[in-house]
Amino acid sequence: MQRVLITGASSGIGQQLALDYAAQGWQVIACGRNETRLAALRDQNSAITPLSFDVTDLATTRAALAPYTAELVILCAGTCEYLNDGVVDAELVARVLSTNFIGPINCLDALLPQLKAGARVALVGSTASLVPLPRAEAYGASKAALAYFARSLAVDLAKREIGISLVLPGFVATPLTDRNDFAMPMIITTEQASTYIRQGLAKGRAEIAFPPVFAALLRMTAILPQALQRWLAKRMVR
Ligand SMILES: NC(=O)c1ccc[n+]([C@@H]2O[C@H](COP(=O)([O-])OP(=O)(O)OC[C@H]3O[C@@H](n4cnc5c(N)ncnc54)[C@H](OP(=O)(O)O)[C@@H]3O)[C@@H](O)[C@H]2O)c1
């Protein structure tokens, strides 16, 4: 039986991935902080083992993950907070960077020594890192940092035959996006997101961006002059 370890499995995209991989016959280590929601997952499928820890705490993360290895690791835990009208709140930025960038790094520090040749690690970034979106300074920067780290790590881990996949979702309906007070174009369900991610990982894709039309529009926007990018981005997320 193959084993997948998923962070952020107590909610949203990660939760759907945990349920879908378990239904496919995988053994799932479902990580998060909310023990009640993780226990509910185990009750739905006994192939799911809950593991509770905070990814921002390196010592706790190392202790929690040290006993584990997996053929597939999906680092999905994340958060989103927006700045208000360009006011830079350093504590907010630190919180977002700590969860979205340092969190996955802490997990990699704890897990990479145990991974064997043929294993794959997916880092969940965001299409938001492709273009400058309003109020997304902290969130976009955290995901841009993660994207660079993933691409660089892919080069270094090739010699160990460990694959790295960067996952770039567009808008997905989850508790995280329920808080958004703006229109979210081409928003998809967690079931659709899980299908895109699982199919991409099964094919060993280095980058899994979805939904495809939304991702293609953002990629095209990203090669335009900066002034035009700013003009378009303001209109894409109003
Ligand atoms: N939804 C979207 O539209 C969208 C778009 C692009 C990228 N993404 C990315 O996809 C990932 C999942 O997002 P989602 O929409 O599914 O969000 P979500 O429903 O809010 O789930 C977030 C998950 O991350 C976990 N988490 C947060 N902080 C943590 C911490 N410090 N330690 C351990 N676990 C922590 C939460 O665990 P607890 O609840 O147990 O604390 C929860 O399981 C995130 O990285 C997000 O940035 C989402």
Description:
- This protein has 9 helices and 7 strands; from the N terminus they run E-H-E-H-E-H-E-H-E-H-E-H-H-E-H-H.
- The protein is of the alpha/beta class and 238 residues long.
- The protein has helices at residues 12-23, 35-44, 58-65, 90-111, 137-157, 175-178, 190-202, 212-222, 226-236; strands at 3-7, 27-32, 48-52, 72-75, 120-124, 163-169, 207-210.
- Helix content is 47%, strand content 15%.
- Helix 4 (90-111) packs parallel to helix 5.
- A 7-stranded parallel β-sheet has the order 3-2-1-4-5-6-7, sandwiched between helices.
- Helix 5 links the parallel strand 5 (120-124) and strand 6.
- The chain has a single domain (3-236), classed as Rossmann fold, CATH 3.40.50.720.
- The radius of gyration is 17 Å and the shape is globular.
Features:
alpha/beta, 47% helix, binds NADP nicotinamide-adenine-dinucleotide phosphate, 7 strands, seven-stranded parallel beta sheet, Rossmann fold
